[in-house]
Amino acid sequence: MSLRSNSSSSSSNYSKEDDRNKDTSSSPSTFDSRFNQTLKNVQGLLKGRSFPGKVLITQRSDPLDQSALQSPNNDRRFSNDDTEQTDKFDRSVEDEIQNRSNASASSSANKTKASTLSTDNTSKVVQKTAMGARSTDSARLTKFQKELSGTTVILEKLRELAWSGVPPYLRPTVWRLLLGYAPSNSDRREGVLKRKRHEYLDCVAQYYDIPDIERTDEEISMLRQIGVDCPRTVPDVSFFQQAEVQKSLERILYTWAIRHPASGYVQGINDLATPFLVVFLSEYLSGSIDTWSMADLSPEKVSNVEADCYGCLSKLLDGMQDHYTFAQPGIQRLVFKLKELVRRIDEPVLTHMEEQGLEFLQFAFRWFNCLLIREIPFHLVTRLWDTYLAEGDALPDFLVYIFASFLLTVIFDFAHVFEIE
């Protein structure tokens, strides 16, 4: 079910046909469209935390609402549309043009006129949609700025805004607030962050910057495993292959593991640190992540980024501690809930999976363990995490719903492509 490769061995499995089709079926725009639509589906379905029937895999019979084509940064009100809205809209436009063409086939002049009118109308629709998206984004940006400018941030209002996406340059501040790493009172914020960053430096000096002779055998083994996993983290993004980046990840992960002995380090936590690292580095580095270099930053800035990553990672994992303790019972429980939810939504799909011998643990365990970071293009991860963090304490249960939506979206796509009933 993975939508992107997370290892070199996975990359080698792609066929030449996949490469030829990468500009269409696997293009970033297609991923963005499917991703944003899946979030919209979940957004519309979460009222009462229940799914109304087979909404994700039912064909639409009514005309498509143009508002569905607006920017993903909309208000939290969406209809329960099919995940293939954009494709259906394209096909409906093509059908309409074809019908008009056939109706006017007897006259070349009328045919030309109809074609020109159709092109103009389509252009106006696209232009109007783009203008609407910019207007919506501008309005949402104003709302964010208003919420963040007060002496005390009202977190519930901030969560409401963040659910539909956070403007990139505001994301570091918003994430710190949503996780409770930074206080909502602006007068205290700078002092608290300064103190927490000093505390992180002290922890690194106490636990990481020491010779191995002062570590236990278990700590040496854990540090060695972290050192093996860091180069494997997000292997398809060159930024994470920089030695300085891997060293920062190693310090963050090892310090966290030592401070949380109930679980220690578990493979998968390395993936969870990456969105924080990218977001907090964006305060100091600009442009594409492919052009970033940790070597351009001063030691103080690197330390601040690491401290914020460590603090926010700790806050995130505090809400799902049993996901990473022995046998990871929290994840096993969520996998069971996912299976039962799919049964409620579409029992024939579950029956088919069981007949094929496909167990949910075979694919869903990694989804919960890494929060889909290995399954979607990395440039979409921070947008997804805006919604994750906006859920707050409800995140574990929310994951069940969003993973069900992703699963049925993928199943629908395969069924549509291969015309499987």
Automatic annotation (TrEMBL):
PROSITE patterns documented for this protein: TBC_RABGAP
Bias-annotated ranges (Polar residues): 24-35
Domain of life: Eukaryota
Domain Rab-GAP TBC: 165-392
InterPro entries: Rab-GAP-TBC_dom (IPR000195), Rab-GAP_TBC_sf (IPR035969)
PANTHER family named among the record's database cross-references: LD44506P (PTHR22957:SF26), TBC1 DOMAIN FAMILY MEMBER GTPASE-ACTIVATING PROTEIN (PTHR22957)
Biased composition (Basic and acidic residues): 74-98
One Pfam family matching this protein: RabGAP-TBC
Transmembrane portions of the chain: 398-418
Residue stretches of biased makeup (Low complexity): 1-14, 101-116
Region Disordered: start-end pairs: 1-35, 58-121
Gene Ontology MF, one: GTPase activator activity
Protein name, as recorded: Rab-GAP TBC domain-containing protein
Keywords for this protein: Membrane, Transmembrane, Transmembrane helix
